[in-house]
Fold each of these.
Amino acid sequence: MLHALKTLAGGLTNDLVERFLDIPQAHREPTRRIEFLPNYLCFPVRTPTKPPATHTNCYLIFSSSEILVIDPGSPYEDEQQALAKCADDLIAEGRIVREIILTHAHPDHVAGVDALNDHLATAKGARVPVTAHRLTADSLGNQLSVDRCIEDGEVLELKGEPEIKLRAMFTPGHARGHLCFYDERTGALISGDNIVGFGSVLIDPADGNMRDYLDSLERMRALPNLSVLFGGHGPAVANPYEKIDEYISHRRQREELILAAVRDGASSPKEIVARAYVDVAPKAHAMAERAVLAHLEKLEADGSVSRTADGIFLATAETPSPFGRGLG
Ligand SMILES: [Zn+2]
C-alpha cells in the first residue's frame, strides 16, 4: 500500500504501472496487492493485451466473509498461480469466493477463469459460479460457460462487513455485453474497459459500437458521487468526471474530423485515416481504420453519412447534428 502511494506521488504518468511493478517484491506476493480503497484489491496480471498496456487488472472485492473476483484474465500459469495465492490469502482469513464476474468477453479479461476455478475447486471441492451479462455469455459460446447472467440494475450485496453493494450497469460499446459495477457508498466504479487508466479504448465493430459507447459514457458520467474509477488496465483514476469528459470530448473531436474528411471526399476508412489521423503512427493505422469504421457507423445511424452498396461512405446532403443522440 505504501509503495502504491509512493508510486502515485510520482505522478499519474503513462509508466505508472511499470513504476509500480518495478520493485522485486511487485512480482511476488504480498506487495503486489494494490488496495487503493479498503476492500477493493487490484491485482494486475500479465496478459497479451493491447499495447501500451501489459497487464489486465483483476479485482478482488471483499467483505469480512465473501469475495468477488472480477476479470481473472491471464493465460499464463505463473500469473494464474500468483492470483490464486492472493485469493487463498483472503480465503484463509475466513472468506469464501462467491462469484467470478466478467466485465466482458475479451480474452485478456477471461483467460484465467478456468485456472482459478480449478484451483478453488481443488481446495474447496466445488467450482465457483461464473457470472456475466448474457451477451458476454453469447460471445464466449463454448469457450467458457457462464453459470448466471447479470442484468442491468442487479445489486450484488456482500454478506458481512463493511456494507458493500455493487450495482451492475449494462454499458455496451467497447464490447456488446460490457458491464460496469458501481458502489454507491464509496463512489467507486469498476469501469472495465470503458475507461482505462492509460492507453485508449478501441471500439472495434461489430462487437464494438460507437453510439452505444458514447451512451455508456454518458450514463457513467451521470452517476452521482463518483470518487474513483477502477479500469481494466492501468492505474486507478482519481478524477472520474474529468476523465469521462475527456473521453467524450476526444470522441467528439474525432467524429468532427471524420465527418469533415467525408464531406471533403474521403470515402473509406483507409482514406479517412490518412487525413484525420495524422497524429497516429502508420503501424497503428489498421487499428485506427477499425475505430474510424465505428465512427462511420455511428454517423450513418445519426443520418450524417450514408453507405453505398459497395461500402463507400458519402456525406448526406442534409446533415443533422453529428451529436444527435443527447450529446448536445
Ligand atoms: Zn476489452
Note: The mean pLDDT is 90.
Amino acid sequence: MSRRRFVKSASLAAGAAALAGSSRLFAKPSDFVPAIVVGSGFGGAVAALRLGQAGIDTLVLERGRRWPIRSDGNTFATFEQPDGRGYWLRESTGEALLGLPQLVKPIDRYTGVLDVIEGNGIAIGAGAGVGGGSLVYNAIIVKPQRALFERLFPSAIDFDEMEDVYYPRVRSVIQSAPIPDDILATEYYRSSRVSLEQAVMAGFPTRPVDLAVDWDIVREEIAGLKVPSAIAGQSFYGLNSGAKRSLDHNYLPQAEATGHVEILPLHTAIAIEHGNGGRYAVTIASLSDEGEIVGVPRRLTCKYLFLAAGSIGTTSLLVRARATGALPALNDHVGQHWAANGDIAVIRGALPPTNAATGGPGGHFIFEDFENPIEPTSLVEIVMPPHINSALAAFGAPPSFCNYASLGIPPAIGSFAYDPNTDRVGLNWPTIDPRVTSFLAAAQHTLATLDQRTGSATISFNPAVSAHPLGGAVLGRACDTAGRVKRCPGLYVVDGALIEGSTGLANPSFTIAALAERCLEQILANDHLTNGS
Ligand SMILES: Cc1cc2nc3c(=O)[nH]c(=O)nc-3n(C[C@H](O)[C@H](O)[C@H](O)COP(=O)(O)OP(=O)(O)OC[C@H]3O[C@@H](n4cnc5c(N)ncnc54)[C@H](O)[C@@H]3O)c2cc1C
C-alpha cells in the first residue's frame, strides 16, 4: 500500500472512530464532563481505568490517533521504509538528531507516533497517539533499586508500598515478562547475550528486566506466522506484528470496558483555565490527519481535570495557564525541576559478533555501576535500528555494535518558560552548567571502565537527545505527594511531570505508571469524586 493510500484509509477509519467517540458524553448539552484526562500515555491510561472503575464518567483527550494492529502487517512505518506514520508532524525523519544527517529521508507530514520536541539544549522524543509513549517505547519495564528510590523520591512515598502494591498492580495489567530462554537463545537476540557477557566481564552487577512484549507473538514471528517486527529490529515506530503490549492493548480498552470512559483521538487540549463554580475549562481542538485544526475549538468543563500529557505536554499547559492568568494560583515550582533521567544515547563497537539490528524492541538486562566514583550510572541495551547498523558499518566504524541507553542521576535544573510573543512554552536545559558536565562525566567513566575491561570501544555518546523527559510539576513541590496540584482543588497531575528528573537509573514508564496507581488510589479514597455537576 502506498503512503498516500495508507493515509487516506487510515483517515476514514479515524473519522469514524472520532464520531463514535463523540456519541455519549458529547451528547450532553452543556459540554460538561465530570472528569477529563488529557493524554493517554502511562499516567493517563492508569487514571482512565481507575476513574472508570470508580464509576466516574471520564473523557480522555488524545492529540494522536488510534493504531489498531492490521492483519496485513502494515500498521506502522518501518526503519527501512519510513513514512508519515513514524513521526508527529515532521517532513523528514529524525536521524540528524542522532548525528547521522546522511540517513534523513523526506516523509509526509502526518499525525504519526513519534514526536520530537526540540528544546534549548536538548531534543526530546515522546509518543503521540492512543497509548502515548507505549506505542514507541522499547517496552523495557524496570523499577529502580531501593536506595536510589529512597534518595530521589519524597519520604511520604514508601518504597515497600510501591514494591508490594503499585508496581505489581501495573505489571498485572500490562503483563510484562522477561525474555524467555528459548527466544534469548535464538540468533536474533545474540546482541543481548553479548551485552550480558560484557557486563559480567567488566564486573558490573546485572539483573534481567521485564519487557511489555507478548513473547508468543515473537515466537510466531520466528516461525514465519507473523510479520517480522521485534525480531527484525523494529521498535520506536511501533511493532507491526502486535508483539508490543502497548497501553491500547490493556489499560485503555479495560477503561473503555467500564462503560464510563470515552477516548477522543485526534483532539488536543490547547488551554486550561478556571471555569465557573469551581470547575475547570479545557479548550480543545479537533485535528486533521496532517495535524491542522479542524473547525472551531470548543470549550469543555469538568470538575476533575487530570493532566497526563507527558512531562512536556502537561508542564506546557500549566506554565501557559499561570503566565496568562488562567490559573494564577499555580506556584513557582510549576515549570521547574526538570531533567531527562540522565538518558544518553550510546553506541559501542568492536564487540564480538552481535547481530545488533535484530531482536527488538529492547534490551533484556540492566547493568548498574554503583562503584562509579562520580555518581551511579546504568546501561540498558536497546535494539539498533537496522538502517543505522548498516550505515555505521559503511562509514567504517568498528564492526559488531550494540546500542544502549545510558542512564544517570542528572541535576533537575531544566525549566520551562512562556513566550507571550509566540504564545508557546519552551524547554531550557543548561548544557554547560558544571552539574550537567559532572553527571555526563559519570556516564563516560562507566563506559571507559567497560571499554578498558572488555577491549570494546564507545563510538558514539550523544547527550543532546533523550526519550525520558521527567519533571515540571513535581511531587511535593508543585503538587502534593498524590499528584494534587497545590492551591487548585480538583486539578491533578498523574504523569512523568511529577518526577523530579530521574527514576534512579531505571527507564521511567514503570515508575510513572506505579506512581499514577498510587495517586489514583489516594485521590479516589479521599477526594470524594462524584458524577454530579
Ligand atoms: C523512542 C522511545 C523509547 C522509549 N523506551 C522506553 C522503555 O523501553 N522503557 C521505559 O520505561 N520508557 C521508555 N521510554 C519513555 C516512556 O515512553 C515515557 O517515559 C512515558 O511514555 C511517559 O509517560 P507519561 O504518562 O508521562 O506520558 P506519555 O506516555 O508521553 O503520554 C502523553 C500523551 O499525551 C498526549 N498529549 C500531549 N499533549 C497533549 C495535548 N495538549 N492534548 C491531548 N493529548 C496530548 C500525547 O500524544 C501522549 O499520548 C521511551 C520513549 C521513547 C520516545
Note: Residues 1-23 have pLDDT under 50 and may be disordered.
